[in-house]
């Protein structure tokens, strides 16, 4: 009994620790260094209109104005409703760089994020943050973009594969239902009095008798046969 109690207690402790570990989020309130300046540019979407379902690229310029080097470790982001920035829909994928920017030097990296196709077209708040490490091992973070973007729906053109697939599925289901209905009512149709009467009338109709001599009627061969059979007919009469 005591072993079971300790096992349950250990399971509860591990579950509690796991939940707390999951609550530790990379986008925490890490302070900036104050000596790192950033610039951002969206080469494909400078108007900040991002098609849903497509990767968007952003070029990040990082300048080190300190007298010590910084290790640019990663970039991550998130997307939020404009009405409540404390709530986020989801996080963008974290990308690792591990590039060192020396004192009084600068570095440009590229980061990609995806505005999901499931999001309805409207304005959203996007936050992008770069994480870097000091020589002492302390981590810092700078949010280089925290602004509104416009998520727009991509035009599907003249051919919509999803709509075509749904149409084919509908036709397949319709054909299956029609086959099942025919298979169900076929025995009743065969056993109906009208079908039996039609079958009997068809069987009672005699087949036409074919006269094989019709095709030679009026020909020289017909006259020859008539002359050949004439003596036989006269001999029989005698």
From TrEMBL:
InterPro entries: TRAP_alpha. Keywords: Calcium, Endoplasmic reticulum, Membrane, Signal, Transmembrane, Transmembrane helix. The chain crosses the membrane at residues 163-182. GO terms for cellular component: endoplasmic reticulum membrane. Residues 1-21 form the signal peptide. Pfam families: TRAP_alpha. It is a single-pass type I membrane protein. It is found in: Endoplasmic reticulum membrane. Heterotetramer of TRAP-alpha, TRAP-beta, TRAP-delta and TRAP-gamma. Belongs to the TRAP-alpha family. PANTHER family: TRANSLOCON-ASSOCIATED PROTEIN SUBUNIT ALPHA, TRANSLOCON-ASSOCIATED PROTEIN, ALPHA SUBUNIT. TRAP proteins are part of a complex whose function is to bind calcium to the ER membrane and thereby regulate the retention of ER resident proteins. May be involved in the recycling of the translocation apparatus after completion of the translocation process or may function as a membrane-bound chaperone facilitating folding of translocated proteins. Shows a remarkable charge distribution with the N-terminus being highly negatively charged, and the cytoplasmic C-terminus positively charged. This is Translocon-associated protein subunit alpha. It comes from Polytomella parva. The lineage of its organism: Eukaryota, Viridiplantae, Chlorophyta, core chlorophytes, Chlorophyceae.
